[in-house]
Amino acid sequence: PSWRLLLLTAALVLGRTAAARCPPPCVCDNLRAHTLCLNGSLTAIPNTIPQLTKKLDLRGNSFMVIPAGAFLATPYLTHLDLQRCKLERLEEGAFRGLGRLVYLNLASNSIALLYQESLDGLSSLQQLILTGNRIEEIQPGAFGHLGSLTVLDLRANALVYLPDMVFQGLQVLRWLRLSHNALHVLGSEAFAALPALRRLSLDHNELQALPGEALARLEGATRLDLGHNPITYVAEEALAMASLKNLFLDHAALQDVAPDAFTRSPQLRTLDLRENQLQGLLPLAGVGRLVRISLSGNPLFCSCLLRPFHEWLVRARVQVEGACAAPPALCGQRLDSLRPQEMRCGHPQLLPSPAAPSEHPRAAGSRQCPQGCACSPDFRHGSCENRALQEIPQGFPKDTRLLDLRRNAFGTVPAGAFPGLKELVSLHLQSCGITALRPGALRGLESLVYLYLTDNSLSTLAAAAFEGAPRLAYLDLDRNTFTHLPTSTFQLLPNLISLHLQHNAIGELAEGNLAGAQGLRWLYLAGNAIRHIAPAALAPAKMLEKLHLEGNHLAEVPTAALRGLAALSELKLSRNPIKRLGDGAFLPVASSLQHLYLDNMGLERISHGAFAGLGPKIRSLYLERNKMSNIPDMSNFTGLEILNLRDVPFRCDCQLLPLRRWIDKLNLRVGATCGSPAEAQGLKVKLSPTFQTCPGWGRGKAGGASPDKATTASKPSKKKRSGKSPARGFKKSRA
Questions:
Q1: 250 inside domain
Q2: What is the DSSP letter of 424?
Q3: Quick one: which of 146, 167, 263, 457 is 20 to 30 A from 512 by CA?
Q4: Roughly how many angstroms between the first and final C-alpha of the chain, as a whole number?
């Protein structure tokens, strides 16, 4: 028919026209909508690429920089490959207009920094490949617009540190690949807000300890790769990942694994411990679903000390891979073929408790170990855990570095309780019924860094108790019976960094309480009964970065006490009975504050100037479960990565219109709902029809802008230039 001939002719004409626009040295396949410009000498993105191109391959060129709006002429792209293009910088807005792109490959370039707006406009992106660059730093918010991303590949870069909330916005990310970097520090909230993550690859980094606090945020992750890190020890309850099934700790430097290391990961099924330095293991607790454990390549000593572990393997029906390295008679024999009677006593390097007889008493006697305790000289650990001891035992090897005395009944720690332990680094005294730490109790512990006194009955501390332990940095006094902090307790601890005093009965912080704690960075006081903080109480801790005061009895923000805390980045005031926020409440820390927790307080009113001074540095703000009906203008909070407004009864009338317009432009799920009027109750603020009768409503909808101050933030204005429709932005934020 003539209409078919007409269509065919038109298609041929359009094809020839498109082919004629194909820029040299590119090859354009118009039928498949593919354009290839491979290994050429292009120094800029061609602006004559066919507009209907869906797949664009630019590998092997020399662009150096991707400028803003470089791909505005090809809005239908779904796949973009920029490998090996000598890229050093992505300008803000470089990919603006590519709302259909699902795959972006930037591997093997020289990108060193990801800016906050570098990836703006990629709302449909599912895979982002950044392997083999020189990325040293990721600015907060860099991934904030990638709400559809499922795979993020950052392998083989130069990352050393991951700050808190660095991956905020990646709500559907399933695989995060961070292998082959130089990571050795992870922020405790580095992996927060990744609810869909199932696999995390951290292998081939420089982690020296299991980053348990950061990993605990990954409640849904099922696979964790930590191999090829210099981790030497997995401590008790070190890993709390409720859904974890596969854990890889191969090719590390493991010398010991605590029996209850994985009790908080009850779904664990496979455990890979190949190529470490393990001479033995004890039965693992709390892993009833474990199916396989791999121990190949470890120097396993198959003596009687390994017999409990071997019996547990049989009893729990766990498959095991690995072979004995010693004694000579069993060298090379597979663990799963051993018989219990073959595993005889006589390990000259691992000292057993007296309950396990030794064939070499002279070897055992050549190194001391208190009766009833177990010493591991190779690991330099000593343990007398849960032995009903009433006095602290003495006579541990002088090179002991970790001493575990938990769950005993010491009552007091006398002066000189740990003679000769100059190399001791970590001391565990949790749940020992301790009521007093006598002056000189820690004398001689000149290398001590970690002291755990949780779950005891301490109500007071004298500064003299810390005499002789000048390097102490981490002091945990949670769940004791303190009602106040004795003045000058910390005078002899110049290197104290972290102080835990949570869940005590402290009623106030007075001037002088923290005297001498000039290096303190983290202060945890949650779950006390604090009603008052003296204006000068925190003054000695000028380097304080985190202050946790949630769950106390404060009736107002302790503004005066915050003066001088120029480094404070995190403040938690949740679950305090603070009903009103006055003007300038956070002004003393406005230049440094990044994370502010004001949730669950029964907050009824926030004054217009309450957030004065706060602005782009604020990255997370928690206001959920309060009682206010409106909040002041926050349009200058342009760096927000988390804003939680759930369970706040907003009055959705015209006074709330500036807030409604502002959250409409955020790429965040804020959870704001209407509490009134009746016709809007329970609706999301964005969906409430009550705003449609407000003056200026039509102008704001049509023009995408408003004279209201709340709509002038820099980030939303950039999103409008990207060409996204109002409806598209409305759907993404789900406020």
A1: no
A2: -
A3: 457
A4: 53
Structure tokens at 311: 């019996």
* Cβ burial, residue 76 (10 Å; 0-12/13-18/19+): middle
Could you tell me if 534 and 510 are in contact, meaning their C-beta atoms sit under 8 angstroms apart? yes
**567 or 25: which carries more pLDDT confidence?**
567
User: Is 320 within a domain?
Assistant: no
Work out the angle between the directed axes of helices 657-665 and 726-733 (0-180°, nearest 10).
90
**Residue 5, Ramachandran bin (φ over 0: left; ψ between -120 and 50: alpha; else beta):** alpha
**E-assigned strand segments in 237-297:** 246-248, 256-257, 270-272, 292-294
Q: Which residue has the tokens 């969906």?
A: 687
- Whether residue 411 is contained in a domain is answered as no
Q: Is the pLDDT of residue 48 over 50?
A: yes
Query: How far is the CA of 541 from the CAs of 487, 544, 546, 592, 641, in angstroms?
Result: 14, 6, 11, 15, 28
The model's pLDDT over 524-549, given as tens digits with 9 standing for 90+, comes to 999 999 999 999 999 999 999 999 99
Write out the two tokens for 668: 């965040």
DSSP code per residue over 646-693:
TT-EEE-SGGGHHHHHHHHH-SS----EEEESGGGTTSBGGG-GGGGG
Q: Find residue 324's DSSP bridge partners.
A: 300
Q: Would residue 281 count as lying in a domain?
A: no
More confident residue, 688 or 669: 688
The conformation of residue 351, written as its DSSP 8-state character, comes to B
Q: What percent of the chain has pLDDT over 90?
A: 56
Query: Where do the DSSP E strands lie in 328-400?
Result: 374-376, 381-383
More confident residue, 725 or 475: 475
Residue 712, pLDDT score:
31
Residues 6+ apart with CB under 8 A from 200: 175, 176, 178, 191, 215, 218, 221, 223, 224, 225
Tokens of 10: 């038109």
CATH number at residue 658: 3.80.10.10
- DSSP code of residue 618: -
Q: pTM, whole model, 2 decimals?
A: 0.54
What is the distance, to the nearest Å, from the Cα of residue 662 to the centroid of all Cα atoms in its chain?
Answer: 28
Number of structural domains (the chain) is 1
What does the chain come to in residues?
735
Structure tokens at 509: 């912080």
Its domain, for residue 625, covers 592-692
The model's pLDDT over 272-317, given as tens digits with 9 standing for 90+, comes to 999 998 989 999 999 999 999 999 999 999 988 898 999 999 999 9
Diameter over CA atoms, the chain? 105
Higher pLDDT, 641 or 421: 421
